Amino acid sequence: MTAVSLNPQRGASSAGAPVANDIDQTAINTIRTLAIDAVQKAQSGHPGLPMGMAPVAYTLWTRFLRYDPKDPTWPNRDRFVLSAGHGSMLLYALLHLSGVEAVDQEGRPQGRPAVSLDDIKAFRQLDSVCPGHPEYRLTTGVETTTGPLGQGAANSVGMAMAERWLEARFNTPGRTIFDYSVYALCSDGDMMEGVSGEAASIAGHLKLSNLCWIYDDNRVTIEGGTSLAFDEDVARRFQAYGWATLDVADANDTDAFAHAVTAFRKTAQDRQNGRPTLIRVRSVIGYGSPHKQGTSKIHSDPLGEEEVRLTKQAYGWPQDAQFLVPDGVRAQFDRTLGQRGQRLRADWEGAVKGLDPGPAKDLEQMRRGALPDGWDADIPSFAADPKGIATREASGKVLNAVATRYAWLIGGSADLSPSTKTRLEFEGAGDFEAASYGGRNLHFGVREHAMGSIANGLALSNLRPYTGTFLIFSDYMRPPTRLAALMELPVVFVFSHDSIELGEDGPTHQPVEQLAALRAIPGMIVMRPADANETAEAWRTVLAQTEKPACMVLSRQAIPILDRSRYASAAGVARGAYVLADAVDDGGEPEIILMGTGAEVSLCVAAFEQLKADGVRARLVSMPSWSLFEVQDEAYRRRVLPPSVTARVAVEEASSLGWDRYAGPQGEVIAMHAFGASAPGKDLRGKFGFTPDHVLAAARRQLKRASSKTG
Fold it and tell me: Which contacts qualify for 657-666: CB closer than 8 Å, 24 or more apart?
């Protein structure tokens, strides 16, 4: 710390609103100047939001937030989500001044601060824990990765839903285990993005009175004033959603903001008739020379050395000081936030000790991300059946079997549970609604984007969520699926109606390029099982790991259930791709490889059997998950797909993009090169070449080519 005499000023755009005392103003200006200096040193970043909202954030953290910096993963902590992630220096400054201690992914202390002053000096630099936008897992204290506007706000709805579910499950008369609140700091951009509207609508319907969005209404975006494209009355919109709305006329009026938070906290106590709260706070971006106040320049760029000096002068700050933390600032955070948080956490730990053994074990396993004992004991197996069933049907059976033993596996669909088979049907599953927060069936309405983002918020709260919709609508969920992978969240995204064979709804609903798009996401497990037993093993595989999201891509139409006495066990699904059968079991290499995913594997089976009858040394490979196959050791991958075998046919009712990796430069890929058509599925199969005869003809062409080359 540095001892320095400061005379905090309330000049420029910080004028007019009193704060409690000089240490409060000094702490607020410390947040501001840390942000200014970090952005200036990095020569990139967004200083506007930290400068304008420092009084609001400081007041929330020191007067209200239930948070223990010494145990930043304490389950009953309040959540603070910086949805306006471009203002990341606000959060980094708060984490630093609060003395938040770094923990690893298991919550074990690392003996160092989450954000040191040196970390702040390395803002936006390589390998820094202070990247341009806050990243979950990278920086302790960051509750969710934010930056794409609207995502953090929508995540916060999932966190609030999780609190209500945890409260219903673990609280008992006289014993409170969960009662935290969720705060999200949102910008004008968050309010413009459609996903925030979807999420706010759900929150209002569910009466999530534990949720508070703080709207930084500064009327500035990168292009200029918000009046260029945005002039609605946000408060009235949120009132229509069923929210309570409050106004704070000046972000510097800390007492007015404190009164607003107090009003929210009173509302939060009403579990049946309460409403989420929007606090609209008016702020002005810019504190230096008057001609720059309120412009987008200060919002999205470093201020420049002269502007930095003028701004610090307006604060009564030493103009040449950089990264200054005056004496008393850290102590102020410790005697407010720190002492309050330690006391509340200690009380919580005492309450947890009184839990019955069953709930106590569940809570401990949830906190560690562990699976409940025997979670997969009831996963069914399916008898061979040439008529088969749709993999969406098999998935529903498996999901219900697992969920009876996996109490915190919850989810729902975007108004499509009858089609996606994602409803939990067993006794006691119930619906999650305002009057019954303990239900495990979630109803998202026709809001795919918010559904994905809310699921991420649930996962960030130690629940195990799944979602459901048609594969075509994965396009509407691209941001949250990508962020789930970036954050390593074990969300299961169920996508049914996986091909053109959904039929008469036509090209608008027939997915073609969506599989390739999902496979392109790093860290995403994409599963497209070939029959009911592969579906069971797919669920077993994705639920057994807890650090990656997964997409279950499922058929609408019935698919034959393979006879596993003739073909290999479906346990091979766990390795991504496996040999279903070889025509000759002598250990030698095949002459040709037929491979596919999903329903198209059955086409390969029919062609394989004919080739086998013709005396061809054929190999049949199912490839339900490219991503899992790619992480297998090279020896295994070469055993499944020997490089010397160039005669190959790959079959999938989707874009061919990526199949050349497995079919090879000389192989043939039977795939989609158009957007489908409106017709019954059987007619579409014939039109686009997805028939056993077409696969067989391609195989014979490959054999002829390979033969002529060797001849």
Answer: 657/513, 657/516, 658/516, 658/519, 658/626, 662/595, 662/623, 662/626, 663/595, 666/702, 666/705, 666/706
Beta strands in 635-706 (DSSP E): 648-655, 668-672
> Could you tell me the maximum CA-CA distance found in the chain, to the nearest angstrom?
93
What's the CATH code of the domain at 633? Answer: 3.40.50.920
What Å distances lie between residue 698 and 349, 619, 647, 691, CA to CA?
66, 14, 10, 11
The kind and range of the H/E element at 79 are: strand 79-82
* CB-CB neighbours of 328 under 10 Å: 15
Both structure tokens of 348: 């919580």
Residues in CB range of 262: below 8 A, 6 or more apart = none
CATH number at residue 465: 3.40.50.970
Which parts of 595-671 fold into alpha helices (H)? 600-613, 626-630, 634-640, 660-663
Instruction: Give the per-residue pLDDT at 227.
Output: 81
Helix axes 692-710, 600-613, angle to 10 degrees: 50
Domain membership flag for residue 376: no
Residues 532 and 672 in one domain: no
Q: How confident is the model at residue 220 (pLDDT cuts 50, 70, 90)?
A: confident
Would strands 464-470 and 441-443 be described as parallel, antiparallel, or unpaired?
unpaired
DSSP state of 436: B
Contact present, 87 and 48 (Cβ < 8 Å): yes
**pLDDT number for residue 295:** 42
Q: What are 559-570's pLDDT values in tens digits?
A: 999 999 999 999
Spatial strand order of the sheet with 211-217 comes to 79-82, 182-186, 211-217, 277-282, 244-248
Whole-angstrom Cα distance, residue 210 to residue 269?
8
301 lies in some domain = yes
Looking at the fold, whether 172 and 51 belong to one and the same domain comes out as yes
pLDDT above 70 covers a percentage of the chain that reads 95
Q: What mean pLDDT, rounded, does the chain reach? A: 93
Residue 538 lies in a domain: yes
Q: Is the Cβ–Cβ distance between 352 and 363 less than 8 Å?
A: yes
> Is 255 contained in some domain?
yes
Q: What's the domain count of the chain?
A: 3
Please, where are the H alpha helices in 577-691?
600-613, 626-630, 634-640, 660-663, 681-688
- Domain residues for the domain of 484 are 385-560
Both 394 and 313 in a single domain? no
Of 599, 553, 574, 562, residue with least CA distance to 691: 599
SS3 621: strand
| Domain boundary pick from 535, 560, 585 | 560
Q: What are 411's strand-pairing partners?
A: 441, 466
The confidence band for 711, taking pLDDT boundaries of 50, 70 and 90, is low
Query: 523 with 580, same domain?
Result: no
Name the residues annotated as catalytic: 448
Tell me which amino acid residue 415 is: D
Record the tokens describing residue 288, joined without a space: 């230096």
Q: Are residues 338 and 407 in the same domain?
A: no
Backbone angles phi, psi at 386, to 5 degrees: -65, -25
